[in-house]
Amino acid sequence: MYALSSTLIRPALRQGLQVAAASRQVSLKVVSVGSTVKDETFFEKNERLGRQMSPHLTIYKPQLTSMLSIAHRGTGLALGATVWALGLGALIASHDINHYITMIEGLQLSGATLTAIKFIIAYPAGYHTANGIRHLIWDTGSFLKIKEVYSTGYIMVGASFVLTAILALL
Amino acid sequence: MSMSLILRGATRCNAVNLAKSARLTPVKAYSTIFAGAQRQALAKPLPLVKNIAPIVTRNISVSAPRMASAESSHTALWTVERIVSAALLGVIPAAFIAPSQALDALLAVSVVIHAHWGVEAMVVDYLRPSVVGNILPKVAHVGLILISIATLGGLFYFIKNDVGLANGIKRFWAIKGKDSQEA
C-alpha cells in the first residue's frame, strides 16, 4: 500500500505542483539590508581563501566568434603600432621619408616579392576594416543571432582577402 | 488512497488539495505580497486565480553593492567612438584620393584617437590590478597618453615638413621592383 501510494502520489503531486506553479504568484521574503551586504568582493574572498583560478583559455574550445574577435584586436594593435612607428619615427628620424624610400628601393626586390610583402602588410588593414564594419553593423542591433554572427563572420573573412588584394595591387 | 479520491473527482486536482488529502505537512509559509488572499486563491479553481488575487506592488529597496564603482556614465564616449570609427571609413579613402594638408591632419587625428581608444581598451582588459598590481595599470595609462600625443605631434610634423601623410604612404606603396626600375 505504501509503495503503491508513493508511486502514485508523487507524479500526481508533481503534476499538481506544476499546474499550480504555472499560475503561481511570486512570494518574496523580506530581510534586513544588513544581512545581505558583504565585507569583501568575490575576488578578495577567493584570494583570502588562497583558491587557485580555474583553467580558462587553456581549456576553452576555439570558435569562430572568439578567434575573429581576438584577430580584430591583434590586427588593430598591429595597425596602431604602425601608426606609432610612423609618428614617433618622424620625430626621431634624421632624414626625410624619401631617404628611407630610396634605401628600400636599393634592396632591389622583385615585383612579385614586393606584391607579396604589400599583401602581408595590408592584410591587417583589410581584416580590421572588414571586421570593423561588421562591428558597426552589430552596434545598430542587427545580425546578432548566432547563425548570423557565423555567416557574417565567414563573409567578412572572404571580404578581408578581397580588400587586401585590391590594396596590394594598387 | 488519495489517488482514488482524485479519480472520483471529489476534490480538484491541485497542489493544495493533494497535500491535504495525502496528509502531508504544509509547506513553510513565507510572507507574501498577497497577504492572506493567496491561500484562498489556491483553494479556488486555478483559471480563476488571476481574477481573484489582487496585484499589490511594493517597492523593495535593494542596497547597491558597497564595492560599486563611482565612475561616470560611459555611454556618450561609446557613441563618439562609433562615430569616429564610421568616419574613418570615409576619411581614409578621401585623404588618399584627394591628398591635402587639411585631410592629412584630419586623418592623423582620427587614426591616432581611434588607436588610442583601442589600445586603452586592451590596457584596461589585460593590465588588471588584481593580476599586475596597482602601479602598472596607472603607468600604462599615462604612457599610452604620452605615446598618443607624441605620435600625433610626429605626424603633424611630418605633414608640415615632409611630403604629407597620404603622399608619403603612396610613395612607399609605389616602390617598384627591380624588374621595372629604370637602370
Automatic annotation (TrEMBL), chain A:
Record flagged with keyword Cytoplasm: no
GO MF annotations in UniProt: electron transfer activity; metal ion binding
Gene3D superfamilies, per database record: Fumarate reductase/succinate dehydrogenase, transmembrane subunit (1.20.1300.10)
Pathway assignment: Carbohydrate metabolism; tricarboxylic acid cycle
Signal sequence interval, chain numbering: none
A biological-process GO annotation: tricarboxylic acid cycle
Main location, first listed in the record: membrane
Subcellular location: Membrane
Protein name: Succinate dehydrogenase cytochrome b560 subunit, mitochondrial
Annotated TM spans: 76-95, 107-128, 149-169
Top-rank taxon, per record: Eukaryota
Keyword Cytoplasm: no
Alphabetical keyword list: Heme, Iron, Membrane, Metal-binding, Transmembrane, Transmembrane helix
Membrane topology listed for this record: Multi-pass membrane protein
PANTHER family linked: SUCCINATE DEHYDROGENASE CYTOCHROME B560 SUBUNIT, SUCCINATE DEHYDROGENASE CYTOCHROME B560 SUBUNIT, MITOCHONDRIAL
Taxonomic classification: Eukaryota, Metazoa, Ecdysozoa, Arthropoda, Hexapoda
One GO location term (cellular component): membrane
InterPro entries: SQR/QFR_C/D, Succ_DH_cyt_bsu_CS, Succ_DH_cytb556, SuccDH_FuR_B_TM-su
Pfam families per the UniProt record, alphabetical: Sdh_cyt
TrEMBL record, chain B:
Spans through the membrane: 139-159
Gene Ontology biological-process entries: mitochondrial electron transport, succinate to ubiquinone; tricarboxylic acid cycle
Chief localization: mitochondrion
Binding residues annotated for heme b, in chain numbering: H114
Chain sites annotated for binding a ubiquinone: Y126
Molecular function via GO: heme binding; metal ion binding; ubiquinone binding
Pfam family, one: CybS
Membrane association type: Multi-pass membrane protein
Localisation: Mitochondrion inner membrane
Alphabetical keyword list: Electron transport, Heme, Iron, Membrane, Metal-binding, Mitochondrion, Mitochondrion inner membrane, Transit peptide, Transmembrane, Transmembrane helix, Transport, Tricarboxylic acid cycle
One Gene Ontology cellular component: mitochondrial inner membrane
InterPro entries xref list: CybS (IPR007992), SQR/QFR_C/D (IPR034804)
Family, per entry: Belongs to the CybS family.
Function: Membrane-anchoring subunit of succinate dehydrogenase (SDH) that is involved in complex II of the mitochondrial electron transport chain and is responsible for transferring electrons from succinate to ubiquinone (coenzyme Q).
Name used for this protein in its record: Succinate dehydrogenase [ubiquinone] cytochrome b small subunit
Organism ancestry: Eukaryota, Metazoa, Ecdysozoa, Arthropoda, Hexapoda
Gene transcribed to yield this protein: LOC115620598
